[in-house]
Design brief:
The complex is a heterodimer.
Chain A: H1 2-5, H2 11-18, H3 24-39, E1 65-70, H4 77-80, E2 107-111, E3 118-121, E4 126-129, H5 133-137, E5 142-149, H6 155-164, H7 174-182, E6 192-195, E7 221-223, H8 242-261, H9 266-289, H10 296-301, H11 307-324, E8 329-333, H12 345-369, E9 376-381, E10 385-386, E11 389-391, E12 403-404, E13 408-413, E14 421-423, E15 425-426, E16 433-435, E17 438-439, H13 440-450, E18 460-462, E19 465-467
Parallel strand pairs in A: 1-8, 1-9, 5-14, 5-17, 6-7, 6-8
Antiparallel strand pairs in A: 2-11, 3-4, 5-13, 9-13, 10-12, 15-16, 18-19
Helix pairs in contact in A: 8-9, 11-12
Chain B: H1 2-19, H2 34-45, H3 48-52, H4 65-70, H5 87-93, H6 107-118, H7 139-142, H8 167-178, H9 189-200, H10 207-215, H11 221-230, H12 233-247, H13 266-277, H14 282-291, H15 305-313, H16 331-351, H17 370-380, E1 396-398, H18 402-439, H19 446-454, H20 462-470, H21 481-484, H22 486-503, E2 511-513, E3 525-528, E4 536-540, H23 546-550, H24 571-579, H25 587-600, H26 621-633, H27 638-646, H28 649-652, H29 659-664, E5 677-678, H30 681-692, E6 706-708, E7 714-716, E8 721-722, E9 725-726, H31 752-755, H32 775-783, H33 785-802, H34 806-818, H35 824-849, H36 859-872, H37 875-878, E10 879-880
Antiparallel strand pairs in B: 1-2, 3-4, 5-10, 6-7, 8-9
Helix pairs in contact in B: 2-6, 9-11, 11-27, 12-13, 14-15, 14-24, 18-22, 19-20, 25-26, 25-27, 30-33, 33-34, 33-36, 34-35, 34-36, 35-36
Chain lengths: 483, 881
C-alpha cells in the first residue's frame, strides 16, 4: 500500500521540502506566480480520457436503465395499436385523400381496413388488436403513443432519426449518448449492449449501435446468439474455461516477477489489476447470460418453453438480467425487415406477433414484479408504421401495406412514464399524426428528461461546436405521457 | 535600463525554474502586484467587455490599475487599501458581475483581488501611457521564458565527471547532484538494445540481431548500433508517425458524418517517412510543408521528383478536417473551420502556443491579441480563399506529365478502335436477332412492325407504339441482347474487356493533395468580431506574433503581403523562413522538446503543444535551450539529435528505481533513471506481427483499408457491403500484415486494436498521446481475434524454427517476444505451464473432436499458442525499460 501512496507525492511536495536558498526576488515571483496559477482556472490540457464510471445526471432521474425492443421494418400500427373503425366503410374502395407513397410502382389507392378486431384491455380500456393478447395483459402498465412521426419514408433514414436524432448517417446512437452522459452502474459488464437476432442483421447493420464520433468506448457491445457470445469479452472457444484460467494464472506470475524488478511503476500494478477486472467481467458476462439460473416459471413467462417464442423470449430475459446488473442501455433487435409487410400481411403479421407479443409483455410484468419497472424504461417500437391502402393488389392473400412515417405507434413502460395511458392520435385512416404529434426529437427530449438530462445540455465538442442528440431541433418534453 | 530589467527578469526566471515551485506562503511576503496576481484573473473573466472589445461597458476599462482607479460611469472601481469600499469587489460579490453564469469568479479568485486592494493595489512598475490595440503586453508577458531568444547556455559543472558522456548529462547531473542524487547505473546491454529498437524503429530486435549485438565487443558497439538503426528504412516509419500525429494525418475528410475518404493523402504520409529516413534538415522540412508550392512555379506540371516532393509536402496544410466537398454543410462555416483547424495544426505543431484561443477574443492567458490571430490567418488565406473556395477534389494536382498525357491519348486512340469494332459487331448481332424475332411474327405483320421498330421512339405514332408494346420481343437492344443470344453477348463482353485491357496500359494517373494559391488572386483578410465570419471588421496584413518582437527575440513581426518576385503571394514562404531563420524562440524549442518526449516519455516542457502560460514550465530550461541550439547548429538534423541524446548517460541508465531518489522524485522529473514506458498502439501491433513472423515490411503506397466486421468492430479489410451488411471477405494477400503506419486513418473508423491502446483521433491533430491502462486492453490481449491468430502464427513459427521439444520452444518464443533468453527459473516455470496446458487441452480435445473442423491445430500447438499469447499480454512485452 505504501507504494501506492507515493503516487500522491508529486514534484511540488518534493521541491517544497528541498527548496533552499532562493533569493527574495525569486521568492516573490514564485509566490505571486503560485497564487495567480491557482487563482486562474486552467482548462484541461492533457488528452482527455473518457470512461464509463457512473455520472450523476443534472436532475433527479426517474429512470436509470432502458431496454429498447427494436421492431425493425415498421409494424402496422393500424392493425395492432390504432383502431380505425371509420375505415371499414371504405374497405376495398378508393382512399379519399392524398397518400404519401414510398413505392409508387406497386401503389394502389384501395383502402384496406384492418382484418383484425380490436378490444378494450385492462382497467384503462386501451384498445389493442387481437394479435397482441399478451400485451393486453399489461395494458395498465404501458403508455401507448399513437402520434409518432419522423416524416421520412425510408427504413434507413427513419431508423437514424429515431436512433441518432438525424436522418444522415455517422452520428452516435441513443445508447451511446446515454452511456456517454451517464456511464454505467457496473464495471463488470458492458455499459451498452446490443442483443442481435440469429437471423440477418437489421437494416443499417452495425450502424445501429455505432458510437458515431463519440469515443469508441460508447459503442454498443454485441451479444451474439452463438459462442463466443461477446467478442473480446468471451474467450475464444478453444481456450474457454480452464485453459484460459491457467493462462491468466501464469500471466499473473510473470507480471508479478516483472513488478518485483520495477516496484515503483504504478502503471505495471494497474495493468495487473486490469487483468483481474477483465477476468471478472468475463465471469460476470457468463453469469449474466446464463438463463439456467432462472426459475422454470420465469422461463415460461417469457415463452422459453414454446418453440415460437423461445429465442426472442431468451433475449428479453437476458435484457432483464443485464439491466438488473447495472447495464445502462440494452437494445433487443429483430431480424432484418421483420415487420416490413409489403405483401402477404394477412399471414406474416400474425406470425410476427406470435414471436414477439408474449416475451415483450413478459418483460414488463417481470420487471414490475421485481420492483425494477419504476427505474427501467421499456420501449417497444420500430422506425415506421404502415399505410391504410393496399400495396401489391394481387389478390387477398398477397396484399400488403407500404411505409408510413407520418403517423405510427409505439409504447413505453416504466421509468416514470404513465401507466394505462393512450396519447396522441392519427387521422381517420391512421395516415398522418394529427393530435399531440410526437416527433423523434420530442421522444428523445422526453426520454433524456426521464434520465435527469436536459437534451440540449448533454454536449460533446466536435468541429469546434457542441453537439447534442437532438442537434438543435426543438424537442419538447411530452408532459402528457409522464406520470 | 529597459534592456537591463529584461535581462534581470530572465535570470530570475531561470533561477526560479531550476528550483521550481514553493507552495507555502512566507509571512513576510511582499505585497501582491496587479500584473502578477490580479490581471490574469481579470484578463480571463472581464477584459473582453471592459477593455478589449469596442467601447468598454459602463465606461469602465479594467486593463490597467490606473484606469480602474479612474473608474467608469459608476465612479472609481477600486479604493486602494479598502476592498470593502471598492465597487469592483461589490459588483463581483453581489453576483452581478461577470454577468454570465459560466464566467463567475471562484471564492479563491475573489480573495486574491480583495487582498490586492487591501495591500494598496500595487503595480509592479509604471503603467503604460497609452492603451493601444486589444491586449496589453506587460513586462511579465515580455519576459516570459518561451518568448526569449534561444542562447546556448554554459555547461554546468558536476561532481561526478565519470558519468558525464555528453553536455546533456552535465545539465541533468548537476541538478541531480544538487538534490543529493546521481544517475542510475547503465542498463544491461540487452535492455539497451530493446530500448533503442523500439525508440528508433518501433519494432523489436530479432533473436539474431540480439545475438549479434551482444557478441559485439567493440568499444563503440552502441554508437554503431544507433547508426545502424538510424539508417534502417523502418526508422522513418516510426518517427514519421510521431510527426503525423501533430500534423493530424488522416485518410478521410472528417467534419461531416460521411467522413469521405481522401484518396491521395498517403503521398504526404510517404513524403514524411522519406524525409525522416533521409534526415532532411528540419528547417527545409518545415519550409516545404508550409510553402513547398511557392518554391515551385505554377502551373504544377511536368514536375521533377524534387519539385513533386515540395508540392506533396504542402499536404501538411491539407490535413485538417475538410467537409466542404460534402453535401448538407453550411459552406461558409465549413470553409472557415478548415482555416481555423489549419491554424491550430500549425500553431500547436510548430509554435507550441494555443493561438486558436485568440480567434474570437484576445487570448485569455497568453499575450496574443485577436489581431495576431487574423495576421496569422492572412498568411494562409491566399491558399484558403474562403470566398473563392476550392473543394477538396478541385485542389488535387495531377501528376501526369505531358509525355504521360500524350501516351494516354495514343492508347485511347487504340482503345477507340476496339470500341468501334465492338459497336459494329453489336449492331450486327442486334440486327440478326431482330430478324429472327421478326420471322416469328405472322407474315402480314412483319412489314408494319419493321417500320415501327425503325422509327425513332419519339417519332412513333400511337399505333406504332402500341404495336411495339404488343410484340415486345422485337425490341432488341444492346442491354437485352443477352436474353436472346448468349454467345453474341459473350463475344461483345470479350471485346469490351479487350478495350479495357488496352486502356489499362495508360500510365496511371496519380494526384497530389496540396495547398496552392491561384496566382494573381490576393484575398483580403479581415478581423472577425467574436470570430464570426459574418461580422468582418478591419483588414489585417500577414504577420507573426507581436509578443515575439515585444520580447526582443525577433526584430520584426510583419511579413510581405505580396512578394513581387513570385507568382504566388509569397506569404507562406516568408513565414516559413521566419520560423526557421534560427532566431525564432519557439520553433526549435518545440521541436527538440517533442523529440525528447519520444525518447523519455515526457517532454522537458511536459505540455508539448503549449509552451504558453497555461502549459507547464520546463523542468530543465537550460537543457532545453542547449538542445534547441545544438539542433539548429547541427543543421536541423534530427538524427544528430538522436545520437546526442542516445549516447548520453541519461539515456543509457537502468529504469530500475533507486528507492532513495524515488522518494524525493517520484515522477522522475530529475531523470535519475530511465522511465519505463508502455508501447504505443502501433508499436504493440507491429511488434506482435514481427514476433509472429508475419510482418510484411513493404513500405509506402495507398493505405490498407479498414472496415466494420459483423458486429461493428473496426478491423482491417476491404469493405464489401450488401444492403448495409457485411458480405464476403475480400482477401488482402498479405497487405493486412503491413506496419500500422500504413493502415488507413479513417477518422470515423479507428482500427479496434489500435484504438484500444490510445491511438489518437485526429480532431484536428494530437500533440501528445494518452497512455491509459484499462480493462478493455486486457480483454483484447486475452480474446481478440487478431491477437489469437497472431499467437497461433507465432506458435507455428516456433515449431518451424526449433521443432517439437518443449524446452526449445520456450526458449525460442521467449527470445522472439522478450528479446532475451529465459533464466533457469523462468525456463522451468514456462515448461511446466506448457506441459500442463497441453495436458489440459488434450483432456478436452476428445469431447469436442467431433465438432471441430478439419485442420484445427493439435493440443500441443494450441498450448504453445496460448503460451505465446500469455507472453504477448505480459508487462515485459508491453513496456520498454
Amino acid at each position: 500500500m505504501s507504494k501506492l501512496n507515493t503516487a500522491c507525492c508529486s514534484r511540488r511536495h518534493f521541491v517544497a521540502a528541498n527548496a533552499l536558498g532562493i533569493g527574495s526576488v525569486a521568492l516573490n515571483w514564485l509566490l505571486n506566480q503560485d497564487e495567480a496559477q491557482c487563482a486562474v482556472e486552467r482548462p484541461e490540457l492533457a488528452p482527455k480520457i473518457f470512461d464509463l464510471k457512473p455520472k450523476p445526471p443534472q436532475e433527479e432521474p426517474q429512470a436509470r436503465a432502458m431496454i429498447s425492443l427494436w421492431m425493425q421494418g415498421g409494424p402496422s400500427h393500424i392493425d395492432l395499436f390504432d383502431p380505425k373503425p371509420e375505415m371499414a366503410k371504405y374497405d376495398g374502395k378508393t382512399f379519399p385523400g392524398k397518400i404519401k407513397y414510398d413505392n409508387a410502382a406497386q401503389a394502389s389507392s384501395t383502402v384496406l381496413a384492418s382484418p383484425w378486431r380490436f378490444h378494450k384491455r385492462g382497467e384503462c380500456g386501451m384498445e389493442l388488436s387481437e394479435l397482441l393478447p399478451a400485451l393486453g395483459g399489461v395494458a395498465d402498465d404501458i403508455t401507448l403513443i399513437r402520434s409518432m412521426r419522423t416524416g421520412v419514408n425510408n427504413h434507413g433514414q427513419s431508423i437514424r432519426a429515431l436512433n441518432t436524432g438525424r436522418i444522415l448517417g455517422g452520428r452516435p446512437s441513443l445508447g451511446s449518448w446515454m452511456t456517454y452522459g451517464l456511464g454505467a452502474e457496473t464495471e463488470n459488464l458492458p455499459a451498452y449492449v446490443a442483443l442481435i437476432d440469429p437471423g440477418q442483421l437489421p437494416v443499417l447493420g452495425v450502424e445501429n449501435w455505432s458510437n458515431g464520433w463519440l469515443p469508441s468506448i460508447y459503442q454498443g457491445t454485441v451479444v451474439r446468439p452463438q459462442e463466443p457470445r461477446i467478442l473480446n469479452l468471451d474467450a475464444p472457444p478453444q481456450l474457454a474455461g480452464a485453459p484460459q484460467r491457467k493462462s491468466l494464472d501464469y500471466l499473473r506470475r510473470l507480471n508479478q516477477r516483472h513488478l518485483e524488478k520495477h516496484p515503483a511503476q504504478l502503471d505495471l500494478q494497474a495493468r495487473i489489476a486490469s487483468y483481474e477486472l477483465a477476468a471478472r467481467m468475463q465471469l460476470n458476462a457468463k453469469e449474466a447470460l446464463d438463463l439456467s439460473k432462472e426459475s422454470k416459471a420465469t422461463q415460461a413467462l417469457y415463452g422459453m418453453d414454446e418453440p415460437v417464442t423461445r429465442e426472442y423470449g431468451s433475449r428479453c430475459l437476458i435484457a432483464r438480467r443485464l439491466v438488473e446488473r447495472g447495464v445502462r442501455f440494452v437494445q433487443v433487435f429483430t431480424q432484418n425487415q421483420f415487420w416490413d409487410h409489403h405483401g402477404r400481411i394477412r399471414k406474416s403479421l400474425p406470425t410476427a406477433c406470435k414471436k414477439i407479443d408474449k416475451p415483450g409483455a413478459a418483460l414488463v410484468a417481470d420487471l414490475k414484479a421485481r420492483g425494477l419497472l419504476d427505474s427501467t424504461v421499456v420501449h417497444w417500437g420500430g422506425e415506421m408504421g404502415r399505410l391504410p391502402v393496399i400495396q401489391n393488389n394481387a389478390g387477398r392473400d398477397k396484399v400488403g401495406r407500404d411505409h408510413n412515417t407520418h403517423g405510427f405507434s409505439m409504447w413505453l413502460a416504466g421509468g416514470g412514464f404513465k401507466r394505462g395511458c393512450v396519447y396522441g392520435a392519427t387521422d381517420d385512416f391512421g395516415h398522418q399524426a394529427t393530435e399531440n404529434v410526437v416527433n423523434h426529437y420530442d421522444y428523445h427530449a422526453t426520454l433524456l428528461h426521464q434520465f435527469g438530462i436536459n437534451h440540449s445540455q448533454l454536449l460533446y465538442k466536435r468541429n469546434a461546436r457542441d453537439q447534442t442528440l437532438t442537434d438543435g431541433q426543438d424537442g419538447r418534453i411530452v408532459g402528457g405521457i409522464l406520470a | 535600463m529597459q534592456r537591463l530589467t529584461l535581462l534581470l527578469s530572465v535570470t530570475c526566471f531561470v533561477l526560479v525554474l531550476e528550483t521550481a515551485f514553493v507552495p507555502v506562503r512566507a509571512a513576510d511576503a511582499p505585497a501582491p502586484t496587479f500584473e502578477s496576481t490580479v490581471r490574469p484573473i481579470l484578463k480571463a473573466h472581464c477584459f473582453q467587455c471592459h477593455g478589449v472589445e469596442g467601447e468598454p461597458e459602463g465606461g469602465l476599462d479594467l486593463r490597467l490599475k490606473r484606469l480602474m482607479a479612474k473608474g467608469g460611469e459608476s465612479g472609481p472601481a477600486i479604493m486602494p487599501g479598502k476592498s470593502g469600499k471598492s465597487l469592483l469587489l461589490e459588483r463581483i460579490l453581489s453576483g452581478e458581475m461577470p454577468p454570465e453564469d459560466n464566467t463567475k469568479l471562484t471564492p479563491a479568485q475573489i480573495a486574491v483581488i480583495s487582498r490586492w486592494i487591501d495591500a494598496g493595489a500595487k503595480t509592479a512598475g509604471l503603467e503604460p501611457e497609452n492603451v493601444e490595440e486589444g491586449v496589453l503586453m506587460t513586462a511579465a508577458d515580455r519576459s516570459y521564458w518561451a518568448f526569449q531568444p534561444i542562447r546556448r547556455p554554459k555547461t554546468p559543472a558536476t561532481k561526478n565527471a565519470a558519468r558525464v558522456r555528453t553536455p546533456i548529462d552535465s545539465f541533468l547531473l548537476s541538478r541531480l547532484e544538487q538534490k543529493g542524487g546521481t544517475f542510475s547505473p547503465d542498463a544491461e546491454r540487452r535492455t539497451l538494445l530493446r530500448r533503442a529498437y523500439f525508440d528508433l524503429l518501433g519494432l523489436p530486435p530479432t533473436p539474431e540481431e540480439v545475438d549479434r549485438f551482444l557478441a559485439d565487443d567493440r568499444p563503440d558497439a552502441w554508437e554503431r548500433l544507433i547508426d545502424d538503426l538510424l539508417s534502417s528504412p523502418h526508422y522513418g516509419e516510426r518517427w514519421g508517425r510521431h510527426w503525423l500525429d501533430v500534423a493530424g494525418y488522416a485518410d478521410s475528410e472528417g467534419y461531416t458524418n460521411a467522413d469521405t475518404e481522401r484518396q491521395w493523402a498517403w503521398k504526404y504520409r510517404d513524403y514524411v517517412i522519406r524525409a525522416f529516413n533521409a534526415d532532411k534538415p528540419f528547417d527545409q522540412f518545415i519550409q516545404e510543408q508550409l510553402a513547398g508550392d511557392e518554391m515551385v512555379s505554377p502551373p504544377y506540371e511536368n514536375l521533377k521528383p524534387e519539385e513533386m516532393d515540395k508540392v506533396i509536402a504542402t499536404g501538411f496544410l491539407r490535413m485538417a478536417p475538410d467537409g466542404t466537398g460534402d453535401g448538407g454543410v453550411d459552406q461558409m462555416v465549413a470553409r472557415n473551420q478548415v482555416l481555423a483547424d489549419t491554424i491550430n495544426v500549425v500553431s500547436s505543431s510548430l509554435l507550441g502556443i494555443t493561438v486558436g484561443c485568440a480567434q474570437c477574443h484576445e487570448h485569455r492567458y497568453d499575450p496574443i491579441p485577436q489581431e495576431d490571430y487574423y495576421r496569422m490567418r492572412a498568411v494562409f488565406e491566399p491558399g484558403y480563399d474562403w470566398k473563392n473556395w476550392r473543394a477538396p477534389r478541385a485542389r488535387l494536382i495531377s501528376l501526369y506529365t505531358d509525355a504521360d498525357r500524350k501516351q494516354s491519348q495514343a492508347v485511347e486512340v487504340e482503345a477507340k478502335k476496339v470500341d468501334a469494332e465492338r459497336l459494329k459487331k453489336q449492331a450486327e448481332y442486334i440486327e440478326q436477332t431482330f430478324e429472327r424475332e421478326l420471322a416469328k411474327l405472322p407474315e402480314e405483320m412483319r412489314a408494319t412492325v419493321r417500320t415501327a421498330r425503325d422509327t425513332p421512339v419519339k417519332k412513333r405514332t400511337a399505333e406504332q407504339a402500341a404495336l411495339m408494346k404488343k410484340y415486345p420481343s422485337v425490341n432488341v437492344t444492346a442491354g437485352s441482347l443477352y436474353l436472346y443470344d448468349r454467345k453474341a453477348a459473350d463475344d461483345l463482353k470479350k471485346r469490351a474487356a479487350e478495350a479495357a485491357k488496352v486502356r489499362a496500359t495508360k500510365p496511371k494517373e496519380e494526384f497530389v493533395r496540396a495547398l496552392t494559391e491561384i496566382p494573381g488572386k490576393l484575398p483580403k483578410t479581415f478581423l472577425f468580431f467574436r470570430g464570426d465570419h459574418e461580422q468582418p471588421k478591419e483588414e489585417m496584413q500577414p504577420a507573426g506574433l507581436t509578443i515575439l518582437t515585444a520580447s526582443g527575440a525577433l526584430t520584426s513581426h510583419s511579413l510581405p503581403a505580396n512578394d513581387e518576385k513570385l507568382p504566388t503571394s509569397g506569404r507562406r514562404l516568408a513565414y516559413a523562413r521566419r520560423l526557421t531563420d534560427g532566431k525564432h524562440p519557439l520553433v526549435a524549442r518545440v521541436l527538440v522538446n517533442r523529440i525528447w518526449m519520444h525518447h523519455f516519455g515526457h517532454g522537458i516542457v511536459p505540455t508539448p503543444g503549449d509552451l504558453g502560460m497555461l502549459g507547464e514550465r520546463p523542468t530543465h530550461p537550460q537543457l532545453l535551450d542547449w538542445l534547441a541550439d545544438e539542433f539548429m547548429a547541427g543543421g536541423w538534423s534530427v538524427k544528430h539529435l538522436h545520437q546526442r541524446i542516445m549516447t548520453s548517460t541519461v539515456y543509457r541508465q537502468s529504469s530500475q528505481a533507486n528507492s532513495e531518489l524515488h522518494k524525493v522524485d517520484p515522477d522522475n522529473r530529475l531523470y535519475g533513471r530511465m522511465p519505463m514506458r508502455r508501447l504505443e498502439a502501433e508499436a504493440i501491433r507491429d511488434a506482435i506481427l514481427s514476433a509472429s513472423g508475419r510482418l510484411n515490411p513493404k513500405g509506402f503506397g495507398p493505405p490498407i483499408p479498414v472496415m466494420a466486421d459483423r458486429v461493428g468492430q473496426f478491423v482491417i479489410g476491404k469493405e464489401n457491403l450488401n444492403a448495409g451488411r457485411p458480405g464476403a471477405v475480400i482477401p488482402l494477400k498479405g497487405e493486412e500484415f503491413r506496419r500500422s503506419v500504413y493502415v488507413q486513418v479513417r477518422r470515423s473508423r479507428p482500427l479496434a486494436v489500435l484504438d484500444t491502446f490510445d491511438m489518437p483521433r485526429m480532431d484536428p491533430n494530437c500533440d501528445s498521446r494518452a497512455s491509459s491502462t484499462v480493462a478493455p486492453q486486457a480483454l483484447m490481449l486475452m480474446n481478440n481475434g487478431f491477437v489469437v491468430s497472431e499467437s497461433e502464427a507465432l506458435a507455428a513459427r516456433v515449431v518451424r524454427d526449433v521443432g517439437d521439444e518443449v524446452e526449445n520452444q520456450v526458449r525460442r518464443a521467449w527470445k522472439l517476444i522478450y528479446c532475451r533468453d529465459p533464466n533457469a527459473d523462468e525456463q522451468g516455470e514456462a515448461t511446466a505451464y506448457l506441459t500442463e496446458q497441453i495436458a489440459q487441452l488434450q483432456s478436452v480435445a476428445p469431447k469436442t473432436k467431433g465438432k471441430q473442423p478439419a485442420g484445427k491445430p493439435a493440443p500441443q500447438l494450441q498450448a504453445l499458442a496460448s503460451f505465446c499469447q500469455t507472453l504477448l499480454g505480459s508487462n515485459e512485452f508491453l513496456y520498454v525499460e
